[in-house]
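Task: sequence design from structure.
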């Protein structure tokens, strides 16, 4: 039914623990779910072999050796035999909610299904014996925190939805929200599955970012922003909501207002003058926010 693919970081330390938890949950999604791990980070080969899942070690990278989203998506679409693909960050735990949600919308035509994550602190390997899903839900109910609409860590879509994706750097901002925009350009429904899919993000530090030279990281961030430009949406721009009783259009006032405010993004040109003006505006906004914080 679906191919779930991800680009893990090294399976070391706490990051290794939570990524093993994530992959362990994916391996239990059922026989209709193919799993593919991309990249050659330490431990990836062993984890793939342990769970009997596919491993593709070679991915295109930028000058800092950061994997590029366009190559990973292109490879996943090329090798998958399933009608639906799911990209997920490698620290995300999923339950049987995910394949059920995909099955419910698979006949919708063009769609991009995603949802808000629940942040949960996890420090130990998950015991998958018995009713582990029930235990996870109980922990999320007790301690989980619902993330903001722009924190989107998984995307389910028909395998031919995306054609040309810019060379965004993985783990840097903007590319996930660009996917939502491009899906709308392609006529796809943006389906918010927050109510029906438990997507658990295991809290972690960001040493992989803070250990990088600030100038290198800034260049990757700015490059992603330049590639995305203002072509970004988030879950507030959803056109449909997946609810327990079925799929419904997002026609409430907040969604309609957001859609109206986002409408100019689809018609503004993206030439050099507009890019320069938008870049100047972003710098001005960041400066205002910084001054506000310091005040």
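Answer:
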């Amino acid at each position: 039914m679906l191919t779930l693919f991800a680009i893990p970081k090294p399976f070391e330390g706490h990051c290794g623990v939570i990524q093993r938890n994530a992959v362990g949950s994916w391996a239990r999604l059922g026989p209709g779910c193919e799993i593919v791990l991309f990249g050659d980070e330490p431990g990836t080969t062993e984890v793939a072999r342990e769970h009997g899942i596919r491993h593709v070690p070679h991915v295109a990278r930028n000058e800092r050796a950061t994997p590029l989203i366009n190559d990973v998506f292109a490879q996943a679409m090329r090798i998958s035999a399933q009608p639906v693909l799911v990209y997920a960050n490698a620290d995300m735990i999923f339950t049987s909610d995910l394949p059920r949600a995909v099955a419910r919308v698979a006949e919708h035509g063009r769609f991009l299904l995603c949802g808000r994550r629940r942040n949960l602190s996890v420090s130990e390997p998950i015991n998958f014996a018995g009713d582990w899903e029930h235990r996870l839900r109980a922990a999320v109910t007790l301690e989980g925190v619902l993330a903001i609409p722009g924190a989107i860590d998984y995307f389910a879509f028909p395998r031919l939805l995306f054609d040309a994706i810019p060379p965004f750097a993985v783990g840097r901002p903007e590319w996930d929200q660009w996917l939502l925009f491009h899906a709308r350009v392609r006529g796809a429904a943006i389906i918010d599955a927050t109510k029906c899919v438990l997507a658990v993000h295991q809290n972690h530090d960001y040493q992989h970012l803070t250990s990088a030279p600030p100038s290198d990281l800034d260049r990757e961030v700015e490059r992603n922003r330049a590639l995305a430009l203002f072509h970004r949406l988030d879950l507030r721009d959803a056109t449909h909501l997946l609810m327990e009783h079925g799929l419904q259009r997002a026609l409430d006032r907040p969604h309609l207002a957001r859609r109206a405010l986002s409408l100019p993004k689809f018609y503004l040109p993206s030439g050099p003058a507009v890019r320069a003006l938008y870049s100047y505006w972003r710098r001005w906004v960041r400066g205002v926010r910084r001054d506000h914080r310091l005040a």
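The first strand starts at residue 2 and ends at 6.
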